Amino acid sequence: ANNRIGDCYYYARNYSQAATYYDRALADGSTAADYSLFQKGFMLGLQKRHDDKIKIMDKVVADYPSSVYAPKALYEKAQAYIALDKNESAESTIHNLMKKYPKSSDSRAGQLQLAMLLNSQGRVADAKKEYRSLITSAPTSDEAKAAAEDLKVIYANESNIAEFAKFMKSVDSS
User: Fold this and answer.
1) Among 12, 65, 164, 171, which is most exposed with the fewest C-beta within 10 angstroms?
2) For residue 26, what are the contacts with CB-CB under 8 A and spacing of at least 6?
3) Helices (runs of H) and strands (runs of E) counted in the chain
4) Digit-coded pLDDT (tens) for 29-42
5) pLDDT attached to residue 174
6) What are phi and psi of 64, to 5 degrees?
7) How far apart are CA 67 and CA 32, in angstroms?
8) Of 24, 23, 27, which is closest to residue 40 (Cα–Cα)?
9) Maximum distance among all alpha carbons in the chain?
10) pTM confidence score
11) How many Å apart are CA 145 and CA 147, to the nearest integer?
12) CB proximity list for 116: less than 8 A, separation 6 or greater
């Protein structure tokens, strides 16, 4: 019940009250403690308290490694690092996410974020590698579709759209 009350405050953007109820859910030993903790960390990010968000997301992964919120926590941790302009830490976190939870949609979202980050840093060859890997490993996913669009732009900027077409033809999207 405390999580639901916390959610009501969360949706009303009353984060301090929401945190109070998520804390109560944690203290009560809620079976959804992973959710309570994740929500607390997520709200910290909305409040631009990224360092605190990172600590909470680390706790989610450490305390609940099998939870559906563990890969989400790693993804959110990477987002916090990006917001803090700590791109090397974001990269490392995304690689950790991809290694620990390779089948997770959060892993695909993380790989897409990584490719975009690399591209924005001018590391185009590395970005292309990540985009291609994502497209190849999950060709029908929404993340792969976004990756294909981004990759197409990179190849177009290189005046090498034929190479893009060749790559896309080689991908088994069945």
Assistant:
1) 12
2) 33, 36, 37
3) 10, 0
4) 878 999 999 999 99
5) 47
6) -135, 60
7) 10
8) 23
9) 60
10) 0.91
11) 5
12) 127, 150
